[in-house]
């Protein structure tokens, strides 16, 4: 990844480098589409979809709760009363 960042930094002035972003977006879109088609064709995954959905919901709610708690703690301890910052 760092090598790609370095190459992109060095070659940033070339006129065709700007088109790479569109190409990467299309590649990611195609990969997500193919992954969805693969999952949709798998009978085991489709038959257990409700179970996976509940697990995903529980994980999402725990992640949300953790983010709210950490956000509250940062707000409480970094921004003291009166707007004073540490």
Question: Describe it for me?
Answer:
The chain has 86 residues and is mainly alpha-helical. It folds into two domains: 1-47; 48-86. The chain has four helices and no strands. It is flat. It starts with a helix and ends in an 8-residue tail after the last helix.
Descriptive key words:
single chain; 4 helices; 76% helix; flat
Topology diagram in text:
Blueprint: H1 2-10, H2 20-40, H3 43-47, H4 49-78
| Total number of strands | 0
How many whole angstroms does the radius of gyration measure? 22 Å
What is the ordering of alpha helices and beta strands? Answer: HHHH
Average of the residue pLDDT scores: 87
Count every helix, treating DSSP H or I runs of 4 or more residues as helices.
4
Count of spatially separate domains: 2
Q: pLDDT under 50 segments (min length 5)?
A: none
Q: Largest sheet at a glance? A: none
Distance between the termini: 35 Å
Shape: flat
Helix share of residues? over 70%
% residues in beta strands = under 5%
- Helix/strand/pairing category: mainly alpha
Q: In brief, what are we looking at here?
A:
By secondary structure, this protein is mainly alpha-helical. The chain is 76% helix and 0% strand.
